[in-house]
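Replying to the earlier thread about multi-chain prediction with a worked example.

Input:
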Amino acid sequence: SQTIHQWPATLVQPVGSPLSLECTVEGTSNPNLYWYRQAAGRGLQLLFYSVGIGQISSEVPQNLSASRPQDRQFILSSKKLLLSDSGFYLCAVAGGYNEQFFGPGTRLTVL
Amino acid sequence: ILNVEQSPQSLHVQEGDSTNFTCSFPSSNFYALHWYRWETAKSPEALFVMTLNGDEKKKGRISATLNTKEGYSYLYIKGSQPEDSATYLCAFIRIYNQGGKLIFGQGTELSVKP
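Result:
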């Protein structure tokens, strides 16, 4: 079975600063990978997904970008954080029937 | 635009009560319907992956049914316990779906008082 690692677990950043969140997956190869965000008081929103190295699809226009430099590495980035980027960020890998296996998440607070 | 609706948004019950939630989804191009349980400060975990019309699945005191023709799924919890307190999410997946994207509902937040 796969294991999903995310770091950091928590992050407090000032507005305008850059961001890099990392997700790595073990126990599987060529997985479909996903970045989700839960903003305060809201549901789970899909931000990006990737079906392979260098292949990124963005779901919503936003201040963030994603990259997949290796098969089992998925990175979420921003050049300049906004207050509205605060939230709980989850990385996920797809299993059978696209069942999502989620990582432990990163709690981001932008001040 | 594909919408997945969950009701109610929140639910407060007493320990021992049985309860149920609804998930509505588009009835066309169905591939799968998932239920997830999301406890505070943890990550969502899959409860059920449902793929066939008429599916009924059970895990302990929790069960779910699926009607793909009319586009709804019910989640039932029998004899709720405080440890059942969580947000319950459903997610719909269309067939011919590039990237295997899930469309999540907003969730039902369940609070079980002892």
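Chain A has a mean pLDDT of 92.

Feel free to reuse this layout for your own posts.
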